[in-house]
Specification:
Largest sheet: 6 strands, parallel
Distance between the termini: 29 Å
Radius of gyration: 17 Å
Strand order of the largest sheet: 2-1-3-4-5-6
Helix content: 25-40%
Shape: globular
Strand content: 15-25%
Number of strands: 6
Order of helices and strands: EHEHEHEHHEEH
Length: 234
């Protein structure tokens, strides 16, 4: 079913944050979809392999938010993929933007990833994925587990259809990179599992429609569930 632009979206922007070892190109389909709905979109790129998550948050997110406020956007929603959600959590923990709206995280390692637990001890992994990648473990040294509860409107979508050969690291449902249970975080408003893998979840039409629904209404679309139609908190 086609979705027409929402008039309320005219004054709203969306910041997109890609994941580890990806670029903004991975978020282009989602960016085009949200632009068609009337949002002002900034598909931000950042050097995810070159520095720590804290460094990425401090050096790149202020500029990314400023890019939208300079265009007159009053409310900035954020949609992240994978590690992009952790970069955002790190930034918001230290400096929560007053104009932050709703956030949707796609396949976020909010409690770390077992893949990093197993492979992080290898030199090739540390070389390729850099300081940030090594911070995504599930143990006490992992950054995600130390970020605490979220205090902004948050919906999380993750997948349970890993590519062949990527279930080795997990004992339960997962998307090949992140366990379903570890995508969750205290304080989230809604959580949805769809039949997707980790790497291409943002390209799925069903996922894009659910992202739109959360940005507009503050929850994901399910039969028999009523969502708030109030304006997005600014």
């Amino acid at each position: 079913m086609a979705h027409l632009p929402d008039n309320n979206a005219q004054q709203e922007g969306v910041l997109l944050l890609h994941g580890l070892a990806r670029t903004s190109r991975s978020m282009h389909p989602l960016a085009r979809f949200l632009q068609r709905q009337g949002y002002v979109v900034h598909n931000a790129g950042y050097p995810s392999r070159n520095m720590s998550i804290e460094g990425l948050a401090q050096s790149h997110l202020p500029k990314a938010f400023a890019r939208l406020t300079e265009q007159g956007v009053a409310t900035i929603h954020v949609v992240t993929h994978s590690m992009g959600g952790i970069v955002l959590r790190c930034f918001v923990r230290d400096e929560k933007p007053a104009h932050l709206g709703r956030v949707v995280m796609l396949s976020p390692p909010n409690q770390g990833s077992e893949v990093v637990d197993v492979l992080g001890r290898f030199a090739w992994f540390r070389w390729f994925f850099g300081p940030a990648g090594c911070q995504l473990g599930t143990g006490e040294d992992g950054l995600p587990g130390r970020l605490g509860r979220v205090d902004f409107p948050l919906g999380i979508i993750t997948g349970n259809r890993p590519a062949l050969g990527l279930t080795y690291f997990f004992s339960g449902p997962n998307d090949g990179k992140v366990a379903v249970a570890r995508a969750q975080v205290a304080g989230m408003d809604d959580f949805l599992v769809l039949p997707c893998g980790h790497s291409l979840i943002m390209r799925k039409a069903a996922v894009q429609l659910q992202v739109l629904h959360f940005l507009r209404h503050g929850c994901f679309q399910r039969e028999g569930v009523e969502c708030s139609m109030s304006s997005v908190p600014g």
